Structure formats: C-alpha cells, structure tokens
Amino acid sequence: MPIKIAAIADDYTGASDLANTWRKNGLRTVQTIGIPSGTSNFSDMDAVVVSLKIRSSPAADAVAHALIAEALLRDLGARHVLYKICSTFDSTDEGNIGPVMDALCKRASARWTLVTPAFPETGRTVYKSHLFVGDVPLNESPLKDHPLNPMRDANLVRVLSKQTTYPVGKLDLQTLANGVEASRARIAQQALQGPCAIIADAIGDGDLERLGDLALESPVSIGASGLGAGLARSLLRASGRQTRAPQSLASVGGFSAVLVGSCSARTLEQTAAAEKVMPVLRLDPYRLVASGGGDIVPAMGFARQHLGKGPFVVSASGTPETVRSIQNTYGNKAAGLAIETALAAIAAELVALGVKRLVVAGGETSGAVVDRLGISSFEVGEELAAGVPKLRTIGRAEGELMMALKSGNFGGIDFFAEALSRLD
Ligand code: ADP
Predict the structure, then answer these.
(1) Nearest C-alpha to atom 10 of ligand 1 is from which residue?
(2) Would the pTM count as exceeding 0.90?
C-alpha cells in the first residue's frame, strides 16, 4: 500500500517531534535515521519521516541529501512531501530552507508551495507574514542570538526571498478565515506568473487544518509540526476517518536499562528519583574522559551484577560544577565526545548481553547510541511524556529493540521508572 504522507526533516529532534505528532493523529509512522538503505519494512506504514541533519550544512549538500530522500519517498507512493523545518525558521541568507524548497518544488513541478513555521501549541504564530515567538516578533526573541542561525528579521517574505529563486507571496489570515475557496483563489492569482512560494499566516489549530487541506493540493509544503498536524487531520478527514485508536508496538522482551548522558537539571532530578527505586551507577567522568571514552570496565561490572534482576541506571552526568571542571581540563568538545563514545559502547555491550529495552537521556547522547547500535529506523509508538514517544526499531538484523530517547529537560521527575514500566 502506498504511504499517505511523508516528510524530510532537517534535523533529528525535529523529525521525532513530527513523527510523534503524526502518530498522535492516528497515522502509523516510521522515523528513519538518515536515508534508509531499504524500505521493504515500511509497507504497513501510513507515514514516513526521513531524519536528516541538514539544517546548517552547506546548501549544496542539504539539497543533494533532500533530493535522495525525496526520490525514496515518492517511490514509496508519497504524493505529498513536507519539508520539516524548525518553527523558528532557523536559516541564514544562504539557506537552507530556500535552496531545499526550490529543489523539491522543481523536482515535483510544483506550481506553488505553502510555507509556514506556525506551531501555536508552542507559541509560534505567523501573522501578516511575520513570525512571533510567544508575545514577541522573532527578531526580539532569544533566537536573535542563536549561535548558528541568528534570526534578526521577523518578516518571513523578506527572509525567504533572500534564499529562494521563486517569488514569495502571502496568504493572510483574513483570506484564510474566509475559507478554502477564497484561499485557493488567492494562491492561484499569485501563481499566475509562474511557480511561487506562499508564506501562510496561522495563529491557531483551525488555521493549520485549513492550510493542511490547501497544502495537499501541491506536491510539496514547507513547515513545522503545526503544519504537519494540519496535513494529518486533513488526510484523515478526506479518508472519512477520525483519529485511529493508537495501535501498540509489539513487545520485544529482554532486559532493560537506562543510560544517562544529559547533564540538565531535570535529568539530574530524574536520576536522583530513580536511585530510590533501582540501582544507579554514577561513573567517574574524569576517568571516562581521560580514557577517551574507552574505559567501560566499571560500567560493565555493575551491569553484569544487576542484569536479569530488574532495570538499572548507568549515568555519566554530573553537576554543573563537575561538568565545568572537566571541560576546563579537556575542552568541551573532547569531553562531550569521550562520554558519548563511552555510553554508546556501554549500550552496545548491554544489548549484546540481552538488554532490549533501553532509555537514553540526552539528545546528543541518544544520537551516539543510535548510531553505534546501527539503527536505521524506528516505528513510533505511544507518547511516554510530552515529546518523548516509545520507539521500536525496524529491520535490525540482531533483533528489535524498544527505546525511549529523551532530550535534556523532557519528562517528569519519575520518568525513568515510568518509561521502563511502559517499554515492554
Ligand atoms: P541534553 O539533551 O541534556 O542537551 P546531550 O546528550 O545532548 O544532553 O548533551 C550532553 C553532553 O554532555 C554530551 O555530549 C555528553 O557526552 C556530555 N556529558 C555528559 N556527562 C558529562 C560530564 N560529567 N562532564 C562533561 N560532559 C558530560
């Protein structure tokens, strides 16, 4: 069966966010890690999100990767591809939103494409083509000081015009409020002179649903998870379905463990809470970094002692003071990399010993673990905490794993015990 909808996400966490949104809207969704080598396991899926890391790469590389992903998604039957960008429109005058949009639109011979980073649930709204973050325009928000992509202009027509070869038009809120017919006419009028991109206003979920209906009339759209939700709802309405009862992922069995590489305040609290209900090993981060991440003997000794007796936690993280001191001695990058390497190696050993259910705390840490375990895609399951779904690997030759990948401040205090109790 052809898939119903697909996306190319410009970073991994954005991809997870969208995959989680689609799954919550009743679409059976797979998230790939990079461009998957095979797709034969995706036949039952409604939706595929290809996670790329192209937000800040050179535009030519971003375009090349996006086009490979696009070809694969069209082969799977996708009639519409969303290019999933950040809801703060993270980009520079060089791209990569414009160059990737141009390439996707040319490939699909799109006459127009809707562009909106609006995601009202998280305070991102677009009004008169200006992006607001909470109550302030983008250029007055903390994004103006972003280390990679400082956003100093809230006018998205101006921002996108610098990145694209297409004329950039507008779909204003008033027209959108007048309905799909009026909006369609407004878009058509702007596309009379040739292909164009249209910045669409949206301040609420109703606007995004209307935009979802419109966007599906073109082969490509550009947006954040807000537009993603609008597309999903539009598809379900069109097929006469309400949100489906979420299906459960098949159990994997095996032992379970938690690996902690995040040093966020919330993760430190979660680790302290876990200590009351399960064994926790706090690794010596100096020793780990001094060994370049190679010294995992203490961790594996602890793991062998507890394997089969219930879940346990192995943590490398430390208080802000410890982290600063290690970083001063070894440098931020080297310290971070060594600890990620160690936790990924521990994950691989644990899995070899029969651990099949794994919670990982830390965005970068999760990336290192997933790469080391050779995981190429996940089916997305129920939400364990806001923004953290259950994930089941797809097509892993050594046997499937059930995972939860949590970035720093996500999840409640008892997240580790709660997540473990729901990974089966
Ligand atoms: P978060 O999602 O909280 O940002 P990440 O995993 O993305 O977590 O980033 C945490 C970084 O800190 C990783 O690179 C990890 O290797 C590093 N790290 C973990 N523990 C320590 C420590 N004790 N000292 C220094 N760096 C650490």
Answers:
(1) 262
(2) no
